Amino acid sequence: MRSPWHEVHVMVDGAALRLLSGAAPITIDHEGDPAAALAACLDRLPKRRLAVLNRLHLVLAHPWAHAVVLPWQDGVLAESAWQAYARALLAERAIHDARRVRIEASPHGRSRLAVAAPEALIEAAAGACRAAGWTLAGCRDLLSAALHRHAGALASVDDARLALLQAGALTCVFRRDGQWRDVITLAWRGGRLRDVLDAAALMARQPASLRTFLCAVEPVAASLLDDDERDGDGTIRLAAPLACLDGASA
Length: 250
Fold this sequence. Notes:
There is one protein chain. By secondary structure, the chain is of the alpha/beta class. It has 3 domains: 80 residues, Nucleotidyltransferase, domain 5 (2-Layer Sandwich), CATH 3.30.420; 51 residues; 97 residues, ATPase, nucleotide binding domain (Nucleotidyltransferase, domain 5). It has 8 helices and 13 strands. The strands form 3 sheets. A 5-stranded mixed sheet has the order 3-2-1-4-8. Strand 9 and strand 10 form a beta hairpin. Helix 1 packs parallel to helix 3.
């Protein structure tokens, strides 16, 4: 039975907006205004007559989404207190527009992962959708999407890091003894990935020898990987963070 929904996925990074639904991705430079680029893109797409049937799923990549690990605190009980805790840690990293914060649910006594996104961008995207006859059906960050898609692989080891390679940046989230320890994002404009991975480990005070799960938006050229990474000994290469990036079923 044919679905009544007409759904598209749009990913926004530092330079471009990428429409991920359809035979091939469509990339549009947003020149610092993703909402305006989204409006222009939606105007050109076919759609159903009712806006509620046209559903857009927004995915925020670097630098629009920021993550931080919240070490467990016995005295922090209410969700509002966890939100304040997350904003304080984000502010220490110079992330001040953190009114939209989502915090991972985790067992008592374990660290939690928090992700923040700029509220102004989400509201502007929702407005662009309404004006074009679409509904903003959801918004998520690329790191959480990658962690969700590859949760099974990551659960197989207690000590590891996920390295998410996206446009212009490499994000590493470190886990020790089955708990999140830190998240580090560094600029990446090409060059050896091992150098950036080692720098992230140094900043997080974690061993550079941790098992690495590499998840990339675009296929990684073999020339950027060390010999052990190409041979598969040091790094486990995962599929893309989103199924619509590699042609798999959602």
